[in-house]
């Protein structure tokens, strides 16, 4: 039982390159979230999903796209990476709304040069 | 937009001392969460506070929620080095799907 798994754990990109972060969960949770963590700013929500095939924007969605084609996977894409997207990205899951706390992955550290 | 503020942002305290971290939020919510993050690690849940007046305790940590004041506190009793970490509070709007996090309080307990 792995819980919430993020890949890759580390990545270095050049400005303008694209990449996809994968969040996989084996807990059958309905809700999935992508956050970014920057020093002094806490965690900010990028996009989230309330079920397979659905996605919604969070606080800071610009420059990112997401997809949830399968219930267990939530993908975060950067089409044209910018240095401002250098951050640590966390995926989190929740069984249903109002069911308690988020379960977090280990994080993915992305550096854009 | 829901704003969540924590203070202090940085806290250095001696072992054995008591201290309180504060979490204020700007919009009505009846649910508040506390998380702990060790350096370079993920976040783990500490407390889930689901109603006004809720109080939960685990070891040397105690969390409380006052929804009328839009305030939660995390009280540390007789701090020990193992409590050194960053602590986040998070709130979600009543009936909402989004969780809003505070900026975090970085706690260092000095022997």
Please describe what this structure looks like.
The complex is a heterodimer of chains A (113) and B (111). Chain A is an all-beta fold and 113 residues long. Helices cover 0% and strands 49% of the residues of chain A. Chain A starts with a strand and ends with a strand. With 111 residues, chain B is mainly β. In chain B, a hairpin with a 5-residue loop joins strand 4 and strand 5. Chain A binds chain B through residues 31, 33, 35, 40-45, 48, 50, 56, 58-59, 90, 92, 97-98, 100-107, and chain B through 1, 4, 9, 31, 33, 35, 41-45, 48, 88, 90, 95, 97-104.
**Order of SSEs of chain A, N→C?**
EEEEEEEEEEE
Percentage of β-strand residues of chain B:
over 45%
Strand content of chain A: over 45%
Structure summary, number of beta strands of chain B: 11
Tell me the radius of gyration of chain A. 13 Å
Low-confidence stretches of chain B: none
Tell me about the biggest sheet of chain A? 7 strands, mixed
Based on CA inertia axes, which overall geometry of chain B fits? globular
Structural class of chain B: mainly beta
- Number of helical runs of chain A? 0
N- and C-termini, Cα separation of chain B: 41 Å
> Which structural class is indicated by helix and strand composition of chain A?
mainly beta
Helix content of chain B: under 10%
Q: What is the approximate shape of chain A?
A: globular
User: What multimeric state do the chains show?
Assistant: heterodimer
Figure out the total of helices of chain B. 0
Main β sheet profile of chain B: 6 strands, mixed
Unreliably modeled segments of chain A:
none
Instruction: Give the integer mean of the pLDDT values of chain B.
Output: 93
């Amino acid at each position: 039982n792995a819980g919430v798994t993020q890949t890759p754990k580390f990545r270095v990109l050049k400005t303008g390159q694209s990449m996809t972060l994968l969040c996989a969960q084996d807990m059958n949770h309905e809700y999935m979230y992508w956050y970014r963590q920057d020093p002094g700013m806490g965690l900010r929500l990028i996009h989230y999903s309330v079920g397979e095939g659905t996605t919604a924007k969070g606080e800071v969605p610009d420059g990112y796209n997401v997809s949830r084609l399968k219930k267990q996977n939530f993908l975060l894409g950067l089409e044209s990476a910018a240095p401002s997207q250098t951050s640590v990205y966390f995926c989190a899951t929740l069984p249903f709304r109002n069911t308690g706390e988020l379960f977090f992955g280990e994080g993915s550290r992305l550096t854009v040069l | 937009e829901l704003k969540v503020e924590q203070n202090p942002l940085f806290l250095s305290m001696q072992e054995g001392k008591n201290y309180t971290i504060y979490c204020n939020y700007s919009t009505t919510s009846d649910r508040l969460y506390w998380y702990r993050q060790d350096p370079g690690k993920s976040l783990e849940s500490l407390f889930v506070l689901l109603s006004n007046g809720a109080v939960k305790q685990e070891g040397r940590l105690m969390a409380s929620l006052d929804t009328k004041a839009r305030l939660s506190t995390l009280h540390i009793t007789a701090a020990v080095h193992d409590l050194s970490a960053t602590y986040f509070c998070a709130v979600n709007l009543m009936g909402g799907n989004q969780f809003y996090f505070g900026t975090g309080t970085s706690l260092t307990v000095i022997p």
